[in-house]
Structures are given as C-alpha cells and as structure tokens.
Write a structure and sequence with these properties.
By secondary structure, this protein is of the alpha/beta class. It has nine helices and ten strands. α3 packs across α4 and α7 runs antiparallel to α8. 39% of the residues lie in helices and 16% in strands. The strands form two sheets. The chain has a six-stranded mixed β-sheet with strand order 1-2-3-5-7-10, with helices on both faces. A four-stranded mixed β-sheet has the order 4-6-8-9. β1 and β2 form a beta hairpin. About 6% of the residues have low confidence.
C-alpha cells in the first residue's frame, strides 16, 4: 500500500490485518468524493492480497465519520470527481459483501448519514458507547442511501429500522448495541483495540477459504427466500471444503495443539 499516496486515508498492514484510518480529523472525517475513491482503491488492493485476512476501518481524532462533506469545495453532492490520474487507472467497483475479506468498523466516535450507512454495508461493527449515530437523511431533505433501506430491517427488524430511517434521530452506540446494529459497544478508548483484537483472531485462527465461503454464502442467502436451495448449496460447499487440505490441517493442528498452517486462498471457491 506504500505505493499509493492517499490524502484522505491511511493504510497500515501488520500480522494479516489492514487498518484503514479515515484521516480528515479536523473535518470529523467528513466523506468526500476523493475519500470514496481512495477507499475503493485500498479495498480492491487489500482484497486482492492473500496476506490480508481482515480489514479494520476507524476514524482519526474524535469522530468516525460526520457524513458527507457539505462544503462547496469537496461536497459529495457536487458534480465531478478527483483527478483520475492521481490514483492511476480506475479500478472496478467492488461491493463489500462481494469481498472474501471480512471488513470490521471500529466506530470510535460520531457516525451520521453516510458515516453510518457506509459501515452498515460491512460485516462487523463495534462502537463507542457514547458515540452519536444517526441516519439523518430525512432531516436534510434526502432519503437514506447506500442500500441502507434494504439492509437495515434485515439487521434490526422492520419496526426499529423504520423508526431510525423515518425520524432521522440520533442515538448512542450503546443503544445501537441493544438493537443489534453493532456487535457491541465499549468505552471509546477501547473501540479500536477491541476491533483489532477480533480482526487478529480471524487472521490467526480461521481458515481463509472457510471465511471467504462463509461470507459469500451469508450474503447470497440474505437475499434468498429458497430455503431448500440454500441448504443444498451449503451442503455442497461443506463437502467440498471437507475434502480440501485446510480441513485436514484444521483437525490435525487442533489435535496437536499447535497453530494451524493454512495453505488455501481466501478466494478459493468450489468448482462450478
């Protein structure tokens, strides 16, 4: 990642975990078109690397992301995009749910508007207990975006989802944990370390191909109403993985009480 001179984010990789930091602290990490392009660029490269087993995203300073930048110069709603040549040729857009790499949000402070709908697309969220969160779009004359209308009811149920989406009210990280919008809420000073600890556990102890397959099936079946078909795909994937070397390694390393030595890629998929 050192080859890319990002201006709005920082990317650090160690021990199988990539830490992506939204880096506009004086603007509470308000989201700009350039930040979106840089995030897409970073995610694409991190997903392509088998060395990266998990991605953690957090915000610099006291906020996670205060939503879309509204100033004239950088407004997310302004036409145009940052100069393409600064980041090289365009990279194909990749939806987070299509990635084999788990993406975790360490919501260390305020996350409103796009600052909340963006991490809603990711896999695991941990928030500061006192962080202010909100889908504030109806209070700005807009509607919730980034697939949040489709996704939020599946995450927390229709009644709670409609309340949050329609009122646009703010709520705390602790309330978000009670609703199941985030996995847990912890004191603000502990958010990043708690999220990194979870990411490192994934990197150290889980089989890359198993995690990739589990995530892929989860999101495929989230949108499916065909239970029998889903079960058949699950069975076929289980049988395929059971015949692979990592399944043998998982059992052997457990019996020998040693760390597993996985050999398969997180992108491995059953033959069609």
């Amino acid at each position: 990642m050192a080859d890319h001179a990002y201006r709005t984010i920082r990317v650090d990789v160690a021990d199988g975990v990539a830490l992506v930091t939204l880096d506009r602290p004086e603007q509470l990490n308000a989201f700009t078109p350039r930040m979106g392009r840089e995030m897409g660029h970073a995610f694409t490269n991190l997903e392509a690397s088998d060395e990266v087993r998990a991605i953690v995203v957090t915000g610099a300073g006291r906020a996670f992301c205060a939503g879309a930048a509204l100033d004239d110069e950088r407004s997310t709603f302004r036409a145009g995009a940052p100069a393409e040549e600064e980041l090289g040729p365009p990279i194909s857009d990749m939806s987070p749910w299509e990635m084999a790499t788990p993406v975790l949000a360490a919501i260390n402070g305020a996350a409103v508007g796009l600052g909340l709908t963006y991490p809603l697309q990711w896999d695991i969220r941990i928030a500061a207990e006192d962080a202010k969160l909100g889908f504030v779009f109806t209070r700005r004359g807009l509607i919730p975006e980034a697939n949040s209308i489709w996704l939020l009811s599946r995450a927390i149920g229709a009644s709670r989802a409609l309340e949050l989406l329609v009122t646009g009210r703010t709520f705390t990280g602790a309330e978000a944990a009670d609703m199941g919008l985030v996995s847990r809420a912890v004191p603000a000073a502990q958010v990043l370390e708690a999220t990194m600890e979870l990411a490192r556990d994934i990197a150290r102890n889980t089989a890359p191909a198993s995690v990739g397959a589990t995530k892929r099936l989860f999101y495929e079946q989230l949108a499916s109403s065909r239970r029998a078909e889903a079960r058949a795909v699950e069975r076929a994937t289980f049988a395929w993985l059971a015949a692979q070397p990592d399944a043998r390694e998982g059992i052997t390393s457990f019996l020998e009480r040693r760390p597993p030595a996985w050999t398969m890629s997180k992108h491995a998929t059953p033959p069609q």
